[in-house]
Batch of 3 targets.
Target 1
Amino acid sequence: MSLIKELDYGTPIRVAEKQVSLTIDGEKVTVPVGTSVMAAAMSRGVKIPKLCASDNLEPFGSCRLCLVEIEGRRGTPASCTTPAEEGMVVHTQSEKLARLRRGVIELYASDYPRDVLTSAGGAEFLDAAAEVGLREIRYGFEGANHLDDAPDLSNPYFAYDPAKCIVCSRCVRACEEVQGTFALTVEGRGFDSRVKPGPTDFINSECVSCGACVQACPTGSLIEKSVAARGMPEHSIVTTCAYCGVGCSFKAEMRGEELVRMVPYKSGQANEGHSCVKGRFAYGYATHKDRMLKPMVREKITDPWREVSWDEAISRAAAELKRIQAAHGRESIGVITSSRCTNEEVFVLQKLARAAFRNNNVDTCARVCHSPTGYGLNSTLGTSAGTQDFKSVDEVDVILLIGANPTDGHPVFASRMKKRLRAGARLIIADPRAIDLVRTPHVKADYHLQLKPGTNVALLNSLAHVIVTEGLVDDSYVRARCDLEQFDTWARFVASQQNSPEEMEQYTGVPARDVRAAARLYASVKNAAIYYGLGVTEHSQGSTTVMALANLAMATGNIGHVGAGVNPLRGQNNVQGSCDMGSFPHEFSGYRHVARNDVRESFEKHWAVKLDDEPGLRIPNMIDEAIEGNFKGLFVQGEDIAQSDPNTQHITAGLAAMECVIIQDIFLNETAKYAHIFLPGCSFLEKDGTYTNAERRINRVRKVIAPLCGKDEWRVGVELAQAMGYEMNYNHPSEIMDEIAALTPTFAGVSYRKLDELGSVQWPCNDQAPEGTPIMHVDRFVIGKGRFMLTEYVPTRERSGPRYPLILTTGRILSQYNVGAQTRRTDNVLWHPEDVLEIHPFDAEQRGVVDGDLVSLSSRAGDTTLRARISQRMQPGVVYTTFHFPGSGANVVTTDNSDWATNCPEYKVTAVEVRRVNALSSWQERNAEEDVAMRKVLEASPDAAE
Amino acid sequence: MNQDNASFAHDDNKAKLIRMAREIADFFHAYPHDQAVDSIAGHINKFWTPKMREDFLAAAAEPGQNLPPLVSAAREKVKRRKTG
Ligand code: SF4
Ligand code: SF4
Ligand code: FES
């Protein structure tokens, strides 16, 4: 193994139909028009020395190292800023060029600290010096220099040493062009010019710590602190980020068995070399002291934990589950899979339920986030997945962004989106909160439809009303591609007066004229794309909203081509995959109902067991049945339902009523407080497998270090099945994927070999699409004709009233991830040390609340306390919080209202009241006590664990 | 339309199943009667366990439920648990 070094063409690869031919060092080269001389040379393997150029940035031409000679032209032009032209004759090397380049580098080097010429970072600068043959520096440090400039160490993950900066502006341009944050500027002129992150330092600037500038820096002036601490890595392994649904590819750069840094992989098809603070830097949780590495058991949840061997833990789990089934029936136990686990782990676990438990009681945490996406898109388009690849956004003319906050939730995709918006695409945002994209450097939404929480359907129906009544429907598309009868019924329905923007305004609070204008904008262009998130799904009408979005896209001819589509932004890394793998209780992998005889028989044949043809329990039903005393045993892998699911006290009552709760996780999480058996899990660095991102892209996860707990996570489900008497045998996760491919038509062409060859594939991947499917429904919908569904607006039962006059809605922020189990155990807490309650100044004033006050937040379900932050982002009457810290108890307050079709919880609408208090809530006090009591581990006996 | 019920955050299983059926009916309400009835029952059959369906039918049969007509009509088409 060696360090992967990706080719850098120096300037962006241009795509153009027209080609030009030129001669470089005597060889003929043909490239697309617009390609620079530098990139043209590189395409033939001729590397022209460079410093300020990089192929992810537009050429800048400041360092003058890349000079060339062009016949018939005077002087020595910079090859990075000179476009290749037909018939050009270029020489990249001559005595004169060598002398000039040496002079340039010598000047830079004369102001570059000598002692660090051999230390970490700055490899590109040193390479350039070597390439031009710099052997001596004739100038001393006597004159003016920057060697004493103070370093900026304020960012926890990277350092900035201005002494090493040559002001090539690569960092400034990376921040602008790649990340889109515009945090850096060059201040001063000439010799005095310096790169500055705002008036003070990095941590107090606009910087979001994406790392793009660090990656861009050729001199080591910006460098990861981990490199300074551990030295330069010597080998790398390509793997996939385990945080959000963007699914960025990274090179895990290693020194021996130690991870030195994570560097975004340029060939990664989801991220193309970019990253966010989580994937790039927040991996320290993997080796955090809180990691649990030994299996543990206890009789009662009030007992302390006792460490045992793997064999003992697994045989005990099997014995308990069998005992419960014997006593309470086959349906009394079940499994919850996790969107944080690999496809292979999820597949094994649902197989454990179906084949070893012999019931269909398997559900996944996607229940609480994107289950309405599955239902809604399946009902309309015929498949439970987004229609586009991320790249498609590069061609979009208008974006309708609803219920998603990509700059926080899906940062790398947000950067791509912002790039397109800066290039002129228009933006409509529908969100109760003023998210960053409403106004951010060089991006301003054309319309911010600031609707009241819970009124998505009302808003979308009124947008559809305008499209239908103002003749904006794409008739030829609808006629060719959709079921006409259904379309007619739908068109009549949305055209009715009750769905007009003027009527709906009373519910949505959005001025009718803005709705009309936004509808016209959406329908007026060739490529309009919808992007949405949990602000769409986590409602009592979540599935209805997804259908309404699909209706809009079909009516305007916006499904089946680049730049269009309906695109769910998935929360966790493998939400798409865990759903694909058959972890819903009513369907096998590939979304096929358990009642379908042909499908069930194929599984029965492969698994040599009779399978249940009735749907099993969903998570909320499992909890309800547990409280009723019918559901007694649960295996939860990599999920923390006691923190992430709504109405915490209901969930914990259900867990407490069970006889055997088995948790597999890397930490002793909140749910583990209610567990009887704890099995340690593996971090993504310790896994082989695949994740499927929001664009249906199956990416490889590769083992970087050996499992710290001594066992691959996927083996645990296998061994538990074996211990229960059902034979499951795999030697490697690739064999699990082979089984998935054999049993799932949309995965038929997927194998680890193909993934290694192609980098990744997007399902469907089979004989019809051997290399996968970037855009779905191109000539026809998966189901044949697109189906328009009627989406009547039904207000949620959760309404504000005299006791609970405010509406709480929840979300997430950039630096923290989901329940925070990972990110809270990294330096990301510097940006978000606690969850706060955002409240509008008007509501705060009415309650005598000032910024920073401790306030109680109460609903019909329960109450908690948080610090208040006065914010204009909310509209009056609406408060907002995140749920990254268990102690803040955001879900103690949320109710068990849910989506009518899938029971996805209505996290986004809870009627609440806010009051100033000076003590924590009783739930928080109890929780703090339980934290200590229910997590106690006995001193390990010397030979307990293997 | 939905009904407000102050204690719904903790209501018991059967009441919850009735509530879920009502919510399903609220969606299909926009469709012609027969199609709505078929779709409501179809949805329940597709996603609910046999025990949930039995519990629902038992709860729906209790007097005083005041079920919306669509839910009432859909009851006939909800599949019973298989015997044997
Ligand atoms: S880390 Fe990212 S956001 Fe921060 S200055 Fe560098 S490029 Fe800009
Ligand atoms: S955008 Fe998502 S997948 Fe990419 S690095 Fe950030 S958290 Fe990881
Ligand atoms: S690389 Fe061309 S001027 Fe710097």
Target 2
Amino acid sequence: MTDSPTCPEAHDLKAAKKIPRQKMPEREPRQRMKHFDEVPMGYTPELAQKEAKRCLQCKKPLCRIGCPVEIDIPAFIKCIVEGDFVGSARNLKEYNALPAVCGRVCPQEDQCEKVCILTKKGISVAIGNLERFAADYERNKGTITLPKIPAPTGYRVAVVGSGPAGLTAAGELVKMGHEVVVFEALHKPGGVLVYGIPEFRLPKAIVEAEIDYLKKLGVKIEVDAAIGKVATIDELLSNGFDAVFVATGAGLPLFMGIPGENLCGVYSANEYLTRVNLMKAYNSHYVTPVLRKRRIAVVGGGNVAMDAARTALRMGTEEVYIVYRRSRSEMPARIDEIHHGEEEGLKFMLLTNPIRVLGDEKGWVKGLECIKMELGEPDSSGRRRPVPVQGSEFILDVDCVIMAIGTSPHPLVPMTTPGLKVTPKGNIMANEETGQSSKEGVFAGGDIVTGAATVILAMGAGKKAAQAIDQYVRNKVRVS
Amino acid sequence: MFKVLAKERLAENIYRTVIEAPKIARKRKAGQFVMLRVDEPGERIPLTISDADPEAGTITIVFQTVGYTTKLLGTLEAGDYVLDVAGPLGHPTHVEKFGTVVSIGGGLGIALGRSITEALYKAGNHVIAIISARNKSLLILEEEMKKICSELMVATDDGSYGFHGFPTQVLQQLIDSGRKIDLVVAVGPVPLMAAVSKLTKPYGIKTIVSLNPIMVDATGMCGACRVTVGGVTRFGCVEGPEFDGHQVDYDELMKRLKTYAEQEKEMDARFVAARSREIQEVKR
Ligand SMILES: Cc1cc2nc3c(=O)[nH]c(=O)nc-3n(C[C@H](O)[C@H](O)[C@H](O)COP(=O)(O)OP(=O)(O)OC[C@H]3O[C@@H](n4cnc5c(N)ncnc54)[C@H](O)[C@@H]3O)c2cc1C
Ligand SMILES: Cc1cc2nc3c(=O)[nH]c(=O)nc-3n(C[C@H](O)[C@H](O)[C@H](O)COP(=O)(O)OP(=O)(O)OC[C@H]3O[C@@H](n4cnc5c(N)ncnc54)[C@H](O)[C@@H]3O)c2cc1C
Ligand code: SF4
Ligand code: FES
């Protein structure tokens, strides 16, 4: 990117090494349990600059390779060192449409920060924290400017689903001069960002600001529009859309298939989180109910499980258990989230697997029968396979169970689109580089293609598909 | 925003409302429903599309005021708006020429099964509609039902009108009279659907019921709507709402429908309090 004047301090290896990684201020665990306010509070400009100075401005930055969308990390960090915070945000946005979101939810410890040269020598640059700082600064300053949109191309693209994949594609396509309509089945756009990830990890005001920005760019968003029902993909294509991008996510929750799973008080994490986040059950002004139980077991070890568990704590639950069949080191949740959960008082029942939900005569959960597990030989995922320990069954005293054991692809579009090929698991088959599906004019990306993955991968897929769609519509011979 | 075009009281606590929703009106088929949210703090609730007019771009819903949201909906008059209406959701009814079909509607269920009865009638079936209510004043849509079936039979629990007794008794008489019945469709309270299914099972008469589990998104994303059918968990919103009546675990459905009884009571009290406050303000 820019090869502008270098920042002397940042290049001073010795000086940089003396600066410790700057911790982001956080709300006290006891205090934050009373509400849904965000836990980390963000860097001040001083802290951000101090942290930014730790970056060595490598000539061959490894962090960039670690980032799925190859953000020019040294460049945006350099702007922060120089005090050009707005410039930093603009720089970020050339690669990533939603830096305020990614700065908060990306698993940096597995991506850019994992390969940062400083990781080998100690502790990496806090890239995620800096990303968040720059994006927040720009938003709070109200300095967001709209890019120049080229003259209308006359092409119309439909985007199905308004999660990170759909929103990213929509933003890219509208900036190319195409007319874009996003169809969302729910009443609010944002996908998992609004219904799944809780307020205390990703304030909804940020998602709303990003969506407002897209609307200002000219993206039209139609909510309450379940494609496959109100209109099929084929109908979109024959009613004036030149191409369709399917980004409907992997929202269908899985259950374990153990006895008692349909008792009152057994939730999927999606249902529990939707009731609290999207429907705002934590706010007494809203009317959607959610059970407020005393002792809850959350089954699973990923981000979704941690989000459900920490939400349950904030809803006033006395005891919240994480029931996970492997050990801590295999937990797929972000380290930060496990750490935050621990601080907040989550109890971890590791190497434990549920085998039956126990109910009372009225059909309510009264306990969860579990069995202890031990780790055996590695399985196909490379992780050691958990095997039950004979005779180690015991009953966990809980009155509510939340299943967070994964999701499968959203079935509505595949079910209603003839000619759209899916994998045996129901994922839409699409070219990795272009998102092109087996059906002419139909592209797909995000969780519906990959299965449950990450925000940034979904965004990356949206961006690539936008480019391919742009090419496709321009080369398409129009039959009118 | 979706505009309310007309509202009419059909019986005590039962209203019929016509809403402007052109896209849904064009696409909907018999047996489908919408998810509706009245206002921003509101809950999303499923309501059956009782009828629709694709030319006028309207859908008709019939609802019973049982709690917060339906009561709030009941206060809306022509010219008012509801915030969200999403649909048409759920699988449409499987319609073909079966032969003789008995369509049973209990109470509000008459309105919910209306579109199914109509579709089966239009497909050339001989449709015997049995409509029922607790008493005469609660019986709805009698005249309209006459137009969309071959034979109409009426039953009231208290005998104030038509046959004195339950619709299942009318069905039993039909079976006993030796009439060949190819399909039974039952829509109404869970105990009615359970009773009809229990009755037809020994005779091997195919029976379809339209289930009403609690729903949140109705797009397949939460599983709130889980019902056990033939020992397998199914998502009512995307795999239903119609299922083989002989396979449904009604006991589980009834228990699950009571999940939020306590909170619903609270909300209801809140609604009543807010209404009485409003009424006092208007008086002043
Ligand atoms: C609780 C939770 C926590 C997570 N935490 C993290 C995290 O910390 N970091 C991270 O990187 N990732 C996280 N993830 C994963 C991440 O959110 C997803 O990988 C990402 O959102 C996928 O984006 P998407 O655009 O493919 O789909 P989604 O975000 O799932 O959006 C799909 C949208 O399409 C809509 N839709 C579906 N079908 C239709 C239809 N037929 N018509 C119209 N609209 C339709 C849905 O309603 C939804 O709004 C988390 C996921 C969950 C559930
Ligand atoms: C597919 C389907 C179609 C339906 N069609 C109609 C209809 O056409 N007319 C009609 O009057 N009713 C219909 N219902 C039932 C209707 O959705 C409930 O009566 C309504 O949600 C009650 O909400 P409330 O706030 O007024 O009452 P509440 O006090 O909240 O609830 C009263 C009772 O309604 C049920 N209920 C509550 N919330 C829901 C929910 N989110 N989803 C489903 N049931 C719920 C519960 O059994 C509860 O005990 C249908 C339900 C389903 C699943
Ligand atoms: S690898 Fe680390 S130190 Fe080097 S440029 Fe990237 S962030 Fe900075
Ligand atoms: S209502 Fe959520 S999956 Fe059916």
Target 3
Amino acid sequence: MTHATPETLEAEARAQLDALLARAEPLKAKDRLKIPPQPMPSQPAAVRRGNIEEVALGFGPAQARLEALRCWQCKNAPCIEGCPVRIDIPGFVRAIAENRLEEAIAILKRNTILPAICGRVCPQETQCQEKCTVGKALKDVNAAVAIGRLERYAADWEREQGCAAPPAVKPETGKKVAVIGSGPASITVAADVRREGHAVTMFEAFHKPGGVLLYGIPEFRLPKRIVELEIATLRAMGVEIRTNFVVGRTRTLRQLLDEDGYDAVFIGAGAGLPKFMNIPGENLVGVFSANEYLTRANLMRAYDKARAHTPIYPSRKVAVLGGGNVAMDAARMALRIGAEEVHLVYRRTEVEMPARVEEVAHAKEEGVEFHLLQNAKRILGDEYGRVKAIECVRYELGEPDESGRRRPVEVKGSEFVMDVDTVIVAIGNEPNPLIRQTTEGLQTSRWGTILADEATGQTSLERVYAGGDIVLGAATVILAMGEGRRAAAAINAMLATR
Amino acid sequence: MHRIVQKRQLSDEVFLLRVEAPLIAAARRPGQFVIVQADSEFGERIPLTIADADPAAGTITLIFQVVGHTTHRLAALPEGGAIENVLGPLGRPTHIEKVGTVVCVGGGIGVAPLHPIAQGMKLAGNRVVIVIGARNAKLVILEDEMRAIADELIVCTDDGSRGRKALVTAPLKELCERSPKPDLAVAIGPPIMMKFCAETTRPYGVPTVVSLNTIMVDGTGMCGGCRVTVGGQTRFVCVDGPEFDGHQVDFDNLMQRLRTYKPREDELHERCHLELGIARLEGRRP
Ligand SMILES: Cc1cc2nc3c(=O)[nH]c(=O)nc-3n(C[C@H](O)[C@H](O)[C@H](O)COP(=O)(O)OP(=O)(O)OC[C@H]3O[C@@H](n4cnc5c(N)ncnc54)[C@H](O)[C@@H]3O)c2cc1C
Ligand code: FES
């Protein structure tokens, strides 16, 4: 594949856009179908493997308008059905097409407070874009209107204008809300509750706020300055942020309510506990959870070897176990840290991979080798207890399971050994038990997630709400944000009557 | 920001910092630790045991040995200076109860975390025998403080420059041979010392608690970097520990894991010597 520069893509789009705008008669559906889907300008694979900068560079203005013109503006707007927070998608897309960017961003912000982030990391192909009529007409979900990229375009435009004023805050009510964690669920609650004039304190265990957006999702997918800007907005609104504060240890949730005078608590503690495979050799030197690997690289900045004090393992051949976003991020980060070969080992096929399609495509372009229908059985070590190889076994797809996915079954006797020096386990995360263990009466499911009312986020305890991954299990940014929205509304309503 | 209200050099390589951290001082119990980071941008997060706390003054006491990059940076901070990030208290507190006779064995810097535990054991009504070990007299710390608690105190050094010339396992063995034998042993120090303490008490069936210090990142259970094998099971030291049954711990795996980043750490260590203008490297003295 040849690599077109952003300038070429923009120039081509400009010419097509000018031709369309020069037409006298309005665009019909079939004219719109003829507009080619706009490719995302990106760093060439060979270059980006060696740096930490963002891979996708964002549409230019003509590309964005041209892409937006592909939208049919369907009356029934099936895309809105596909959006977990029901953004008025045809509305904001049309505003971009008509070059009214201020309006586009205003429409987005009615339903999401993190468009620059969600535009980058949402799994659009299973949400809004899956439902898109244009994609259906072209019989290819990847040819749907690029709603996520347009969302990002509008949000980036606003940030670059420097016109993102912090939301207005109503007069102080004298009431106080504690928000535990600082991921997307908590950021949303903090903003929405603060807006009503309540004092908000955010408690984060790490030394920097942002949750997974900061420590998990890498810079090359989500630049940290974008997350920092959201945090700066919270601060500008008067939200107090206390880092290095682990609820359950520094103070308990009960102490916040009973002794420290908080009127309500929101738990947005995420799903931070890494799962391991429970196979022999998993504690050898050179085996890491993706959480550890990515935290060292992202939060602790270990990729910056000249300045960071936190070390990261000097790998040559890496095996990453898993097929989700976390696995893709770990694999691509390992390349950037300097690994010569990265092998991704996944039990099912590419169709079942939960990762965003764009990340799978990027990983392949960058040279990550996919080993599908295979699974690790044990990890082998040398005399110093360091990883030297991994034993895998092949799988084939059997009958569909409860989730409708065909269940992979082991092919007997198909074991083989692959030489690697590093194994990164990325098979999922579960909720951290700390808050559950230190809060009497807080009801949880048998998976350790906190039980909360779907409409309000209310937990089994009075004045205690929860949302995001701690309730859903490892899920997505947009779902965490949506839960935060609903919980904030319920907290505001509760405080109004208190 | 956590102000350093007091700084003392306890021995050649060992420093004491009393640091403002009111919430941690109020919440902490013996056996717990904190994660410390000298600077938010590029600093490393390292675990340090809380040696003591003063809830009224809102301070905690950290005692550490200068072994690498981050501990050098901490040791270079002046009284009145500040540590950017201190998180805690972390880990499960020591289970303290009256069992009868408790032998507390501390090796090197391990004497610091042992101190509050010995204190707790004494307050709970136990007879407390304390064994302190160090490479040489200069590295013996908290001897007076321990003497004030102990029913019996044994000091030993590798070179005999203070107390007995012995490894801590020698007096520990003798204590196990006494009748009645101790009801509990608590050993804190370098992994190799804890391993041999556990081997010493094993034949006598004396339950032995060890406190593990592993590589950590978050200290809250989200990375698994601190994992150890205990009785064939994987456990996270930061949330399941730091104390475990010494007879069940796979010390060889623990020691291998501690060396994960050795080459990189040595490189950083050298660099920081150059930056801080410290001539010699520890352990390589003339
Ligand atoms: C590597 C990786 C890649 C991902 N990629 C995508 C993607 O492309 N698209 C997508 O939609 N989703 C992705 N996700 C999932 C997404 O990031 C999460 O669903 C989302 O961040 C959950 O938000 P949250 O607010 O519930 O919690 P988190 O973002 O998990 O934040 C929770 C915060 O709470 C803090 N905390 C926990 N316990 C305590 C306590 N006791 N006291 C104080 N603080 C505490 C934690 O330190 C953390 O900072 C990814 C996740 C990972 C790990
Ligand atoms: S230090 Fe990360 S899980 Fe223990």
